[in-house]
Amino acid sequence: MSESKLLRGTFILTLGTYISRILGMIYIFPFTYLVGETGIALYQYGYGQYTIFLAISTAGLPMAVSKFVSKYNSLGDYHTGRRMLKSGLFVMTITGFLSFLLLYSLAPVLAPIQLGGDKSVYTADDVVSVIRMVSFALLIVPIMSMMRGFFQGHQSMGPTALSQVIEQIARVIFLLSSAYIVIELLDGGIKTAIGYATFAAFIGAIGGLGVMIWYWLKRKPYLDDLLATSKPQTEISTKQIYKELISYSAPFVFVGLAIPLYSLIDQYTFNRALNSIGEEEIQNLFGIVTGLVPKLVMIPVSIATAFSLTLVPTITKSFTDGDFSLLRKQIDKTFQICVLLVLPAVVGMAVLSYPMYNSFFGLNEAGGNVLRWYAPVAILFSFFSITAAILQGINKQKFAVVSLAIGLIVKLICNIPFLIWFGEIGSVLATALGYTVSIAYNFWMISRHAQYSFSFFVRRSLLMGIFAFVMAIGIVLIEWLLSFGLSVDESRGQSTVVLLIGVVVGAVIYLFLAYRSRLLEILLGSKFAFRKTSKKAVD
């Protein structure tokens, strides 16, 4: 395959992935309007366990299958890839059914643990119902993921991209329409609406699988032609096939599980800890901390990591070629782009936390406070993803797994004490501490195995920090001036006006400083150049 076609395929897959992610984030705003923060808590009780199975199916499996098929296709052996698909579909059907059966059966055990006491507005039966509704999606997702990986192994990214988008569109449409019909038209209860909302995962999976089946029928004559020209099948047993697949998928699975596993710790400790200190609004706070605020925080994370991770393939090539000088420059640029994009978003979210939360989810002082504390965690999410990807790029993926395990242990140890000492903010602090430890370990391993020094990156980050600080001052001043005529505590409309003006002012200040200093030109290319005749760039 030509390089231009490969790049086109990568772009299509990346575009599909991020369209899917954006759809998966923005639905929460109208959904919260329909069911409220308490309804979001019930939704999270049901959806939390499913995300673990989902991450395993969608993060590790397609990548492993793609790598396996691509390897044997490059050898001219199309039989082995087809054999793996045939066997894999059967195995995924069985494992999908067993996963469904396991989650469905364990629902009565998991539900009371999550509720953590008798102060909940929901019963264990309510939580059992939503867990069981979402578990049906596990019948479909593994099969769909296997087919996605097979097409990716043939360097065909369009099927996966379209499948991801259709899956998310179908899920969101069913989720929002069913919630609206139940609540607004049928005068049904929140619990019924949440049940249908979690079942939307199954509807989305059917849509995604339908796309893959359509592509299979369309491409089968071409794939059969390849099979007819195949070299003799490689001597490899079924056991060896799955051993190879697991070796490919394990690092991707563990890294992809980071956020779901952190969230899972909250699900089984949050309510119990706050119950012990007599907190009354536990369901609302749980919905805010685990469901609503993370959706806002992940927006800049997704954008920044999309830009930064495009450099990782070049990092892999430099490492393979032994060009460590170029490798260090590429790592530097990756880190700097992350800070350039995420830092201003983090600072802006923290300063504008109250009008931002009020605008998207309704007036709630606790929500604004949680967002203010949670916003800085965005940069930790970004750096964990990027450093883990770099470690995989330099063939040190085992250290990414070790760092995740260390961070999760820190989160597990600290979560309950922090929740007792600091209330709902304790969960955020424990998450931040866990990610900080993981990132520090990743930095150490990158420094050790890529001979990378952080001194230049630290200096450049300090410069961007100064820009962000000036931006924050500008936003605070504009908020103060607007407070004479507008109040973020009185209406969502006034909060939205303050938010929009604050975002524009902050963006203008930060981009102006980054542009005039030639930082944008250095990191993002000559199209952002300030002056061609400038004597020198920023240090």
From TrEMBL:
CDD domains with a match to the protein in the record: MATE_SpoVB_like
Cell membrane among keywords: yes
Subcellular localization(s) per the UniProt record: Cell membrane
Lipid bilayer topology: Multi-pass membrane protein
GO cellular component: plasma membrane
Keyword Transmembrane included in the entry's annotation: yes
Domain of life per record: Bacteria
Key words of the record: Cell membrane, Membrane, Transmembrane, Transmembrane helix
InterPro entries per record: PG_synth_SpoVB (IPR024923), Poly_Biosynth_Transport (IPR050833), Polysacc_synth (IPR002797)
Membrane spanning residue stretches: 12-35, 47-69, 89-110, 130-151, 172-190, 196-217, 245-265, 285-313, 334-353, 373-392, 399-422, 428-446, 462-482, 494-513
Principal place of residence: membrane
Protein's name in the database: Polysaccharide biosynthesis protein
